[in-house]
Amino acid sequence: MAIKEDLQKQLINELVVESLEGLDAFDHEILTLEAGGQTADTWNNAFRIIHTIKGSSGCIGFGKVESVAHAGESLLAVLRDGGLKPDSRTFSSLLRYSDALREMMRSIGQDGDEGSEDHSQLVSDIKALHAGLTGEAAEKPAFGFFEDDVKIPETAADPPAAQPQPLAISKNEPVRKDDALHKDAIHKVAIHKEDTGETQSSGSAAPRAAASDSAIRVDVSQIDRLMNLVGELVLARNQIVQSTGQDADPSHVAAVQRVNLITSELQQSVMKTRMQPIGNVWSKFPRIIRDLCHELGKDVALAMEGNETELDRTIIEAIKDPMTHIIRNSIDHGIEHPEERVASGKTAQGRLSLRAFHEGGQVNI
Questions:
Q1: Residue 145 phi/psi, 5° resolution?
Q2: Segment holding 231, helix H or strand E
Q3: What is the torsional sign of CA 56, 62, 63, 68?
């Protein structure tokens, strides 16, 4: 019984973490589409994320998540296939839909259930969008809201992850206020395997490794405990080195030097596992800026440079809220409304730039 419960808990944890990561990627795809940056795979990427959440939730028994996910999946299938042209209302509904799934996932992670929030109005809005098909599109086989079988185009491999691009956040219809940062219910760290150094034969592309083959998930508490143990090992190493005199046995000196080297390398490796790219924080900002621009009636283009600049996990957590506050103030007090900007001889669209870089042993933001 205990083994079964542990397995169920592990499955739920995996569902929550992967779904929250997927929903962050979903938001990015939707914002890219709203900004006019659509590619051949953008709608398909968004569809796959929701399809995965729906299937995984259903397998574990979270019917409420499965039902809500299914409604959005049907709409995304039609949008992907070109049966419906999205407008501002469509994008706003899809982002609210993402928030609803994210809220349920957090509830599952914290309390083990899907929460008591009623999402029937949201589902109704999505159904209304789905019902807006043109006569020509309606004649084609479409994905209904209660259709169980959903076809996914077969591909040789999953499309590569979209790279963050500057997003133009334009003024549209008002949306609900939501300036809270999305805090993961379960904090995890991805530890990537080191490069094996093997090369591919010339003329052939290297096959993409499966996610399960390139990374594992480890609780942050385990990393912290390992860091503490390494700290104790460093202290013990220092004592051994200091107690080893010049006249000690050569074999003993060689062993101490070896322990010294290995301990230093181990300390550096463990410290690297705590490093995360600042893009983990910045990835939340396009959505926050988009909602704030809708709320304030402003037009802002966001540009980010240095997303891969790495910081310690504790610093990443510490700067989330202050940076969000700065971003909000920049738009609220630092950028005028479009008509005011034009009257002052400026472009109607303001620009917000985020840059991170290493300099003199420090990280500048």
A1: -70, -20
A2: helix 220-243
A3: negative
> Can you tell me the distance from the alpha carbon of 8 to that of 329, in angstroms, rounded to the nearest whole number?
44
Place of tokens 């299937």: 55
Q: What is the pLDDT of residue 153?
A: 39
CA angle 181/186/187 to nearest 5° reads 80
Tell me the CB-side half-sphere exposure of residue 181, using CA atoms within 13 A: 21
Question: Within 13 Å, how many C-alpha atoms sit on residue 252's CB side?
Answer: 9
Tell me if 43 sits within 8 A of 173, measured CB to CB.
no
How many other C-beta atoms lie within 10 A of the C-beta of residue 8? Answer: 13
Yes or no: say if 190 and 217 are a contact pair by the CB < 8 Å rule.
Answer: yes
pLDDT at 7: 77
Q: Which of 127, 107, 132 is nearest to 117 (CA)?
A: 107
The pLDDT of residue 299 is 92
* Closest C-alpha to 140, from 83, 219, 70, 212: 83
**Listed residue (124, 72, 109, 272) closest to 184, CA to CA:** 109
Question: Dihedral (C-alpha) 119, 121, 126, 130: value to the nearest 10 degrees?
Answer: 130
What is the predicted pLDDT for the residue at 26? 92
Residues 228, 313, 351, CA angle at the centre, nearest 5°?
165
Residues of the chain scoring pLDDT < 70? 1-4, 40, 132-217, 246-247
Contact assessment for residue 84 and residue 135, using Cβ atoms and an 8 Å cutoff = no
> Who contacts 49 (Cβ-Cβ below 8 Å, separation ≥6)?
22, 23, 25, 26, 29
- The predicted model scores a pTM of 0.57
The radius of gyration of the chain's CA atoms, rounded to the nearest angstrom, is 25
pLDDT score at 247? 67
Tell me phi and psi for residue 319, to 5 degrees.
Answer: -95, -5
Quick one: DSSP state of residue 241?
H
CB-CB contact of 169 with 286 (8 Å): yes
